[in-house]
Structures are given as structure tokens and as C-alpha cells.
Amino acid sequence: MNGQKPPASPSEEADRTQLDLAKQEGTAYFRSLEYMANKVAANGATQECGDVIVGFAQEKAEGMYRLRNQELVWEEPPQDENCHFEVTVIDATDRRFIPNLDVTLTVTDGKGNEVGSEKMPFLWHPGLYHYGRNWALPGDGRYNLVVDIETPEFPRHDKVNGRRYAKPIKAHFPSVQVKTGRG
């Protein structure tokens, strides 16, 4: 990402200090995103889509803690799962993570055949909030990723700055080299 959107404007809801602090938060988050996509994951990229920047990272399938009977229990991924996709959606103006979104990832193979289409739930991660899940892919290779994000229905403060995210988003990541496996 080279440029950023123009800064948000002070308004009845956010003064300059609040907007500067939001931008600092977003700058730190974006550094974490770049680290995940470029140093930790097998592959990753970002793409500006209007009011947001959509990013993805691809790793081997991984286990997770899940709440079962009010206890966190470690669960290994099912045997058929061999890939973990992470999707992040951030504000293009201040680069902060946008929570509470309805995110769907569709994966097709190099011939355009759909491998799957799945909702990507929010995953808490100590280094990078994201939407994600494990997948069962046919194997290593090039895949096309399409991220669909529904228009969020959450209320917005600020008639000056709050007019963002008013349309559905579709991000295309063609011919992504995927390395499958289990972490």
C-alpha cells in the first residue's frame, strides 16, 4: 500500500486528538498485518477496495482453543483440513481493524472450479485480529480467492466521518500460490 486516504475530519464526535490516536492504532495494526502476511504466513497480500483495505494470509491448518462447557479446550484441526486462510478488513483512512463483519471467502482452482465458499468467523489472535478458518484443499497449487464482505449493519457515530462501509465489498486475489499442510 503506498498512499492512504485523506485523514478523517474533526467533527462533533471526534476531535483531532482522537483521530490522531485512531490513526496511530491503525498504523500499528497495519505493521502487524504486514508482518503476518510477509514473514509468518506462506503467502499474503492486501488490496484497497473503496473505504477498506482487504488483506489475506495463508498458512498450514492449525489447531485452536475453543470454549467447551465453559472451559478452553485445545482442538487439533480435522484430518482433512490442510490450509488456514486469514482475512482482515481495515479502514482505508486510519487502517484500524473493522470488527463485526460478515465475511465470506470463495476459493476456486486454476480452472475456475469452485473448491469451496465459507463464512470466515472472527478469530482472536494475540498478534492480529482477523476473520479465518481452516480449509480442506485438494493440495498445493494456485488458487483464486474472492472475499465478499456484506454491508455492515452496525450503527455509526459521526455524520461527517461515519458514512463509510455503505456498500458490499468484493476483493479478488487471483492465482495465489498456496502451500498446504498441517501446523
UniProtKB/TrEMBL annotation:
Superkingdom as given in the UniProt entry: Bacteria
InterPro entries xrefs: Metal-bd_Tp34-typ, Tp34-type_sf
Family (UniProt): Belongs to the UPF0423 family.
Organism: Roseibium salinum
A Pfam family it matches: Iron_transport
Protein's name in the database: Iron transporter
Keyword vocabulary terms for this entry: Signal
